[in-house]
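Item description
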Amino acid sequence: MLLLVCAAARAEEIRIEIGRGAQKARVVAAGKEHLLSVRGGQVLVDGAPGPAEFAGPLALDGHALAGRLEFFADQGGLLAVNAVDLEDYVAAVVASEVPPSWPAEALRAQAVAARTFAVAQKISQGPGARAHLGASVLDQVYKGTADPAKTALQAARDTAGEVLTWGAAPIAAYFSASCGGKSESAEAAFHLTPGSTPYLRGGDPDDDERAFTKRIPLAEISSALRKAKRMQANVQGLRIVARTGSGRAKTLSLQTPGGARPLAAVELRQILGYRELPSLLFEVRIDGGAAVFEGKGSGHGVGLCQWGARGRALKGAGYREILAHYYPGAEIRRMY
C-alpha cells in the first residue's frame, strides 16, 4: 500500500472537475480565444471536432486558471476538467477556503489537510479517472485562481509534500468552517463503518463557538420538501427527537395534518441548503408560523475546524500541534 500511495502522490498533477452541463464555453489559451460547444456526443472547438485540451495562460469564461484545461462531452453538455500541479492546487484551495490574512500556522494546517484530502481522492478515483474531485464545498473549495495570495502560496511551499497518514495510507482529512465548540465524529456525520476513522472520533472541545439564528417559515420548509419529493404534506411543526454524541440533531419529527413523520436532520439541511441551515448543532422552536433555529458552527464539524485552527494559531500553536488536535493519532509524512 505504501508503494501505491507514494506513486500516486509523486504524480504532480491533480484533476478537478470545474464545470458540468454547460452547452457552450469560452476559453482563452495562450492569447487565443476559442468557443466550445457540444453536439452529437462530440466536443466542438470553434465549430469543428478536434482535441479539446488547452495549455498556456488560461481563462475559462473570463476566469483565470493555472495548468491545463480539458473538455469532454457528458450527458449532452460539456464537462470541464482543470489539471494542475498538486502544490499549485493546494495553494489555490488554501486561498479559496480561508482568508489569506489568517495566521501562517493556521494556513499551513489547512494546506496539509487540503493536500491530504486531494491525495486520498486521487488514489480512490484511480489513474483512469477524468477528475479526482470537484471544486465545490462538497469536496474542498477550489476557485482555480492562477495567482493565489502570497500567504496561501507560502503555506503550500512550507509544507510541500506533507500528508497526514494512518499507517501507510493518507487519511480522510475532512474539515469544516466552524465546529461550534465541539467536533463531530466521521461515523456519525457520514454513516461510516465503526472504527474506520479512529482519527476523526469527535467530541473534542474547541474554542470556536460561532453562533447563528435562522428563521425559516414552515411554508418554505413544506415547499422545499415537496420540491425534493420527500413529503407532500404541510409541515405544522418540528422538533428534535435524537442527537449524535456531539449534541448535533440526528432525527427530527415533523408534525403534519396526518401525524408525525420522522426525517433525518442531515437530510433537512441538504434540502433547505447549507446557507439556510449552517450546521446541525442547533435547538429549534416554532414561533408565528416559522421554525427558529438557534445554533453554533458552520459545516459538518468533522476534522479540522478552520475558525478553531485560527484561534489556536493566535494562541501560539504550530500547524503540527493544530493538526494533532483535530486528527489525533495521525502522522505527518513527507510523501514526495
User: Anything to note?
Assistant: The first helix runs from residue 2 to 10. The longest strand covers residues 13-22.
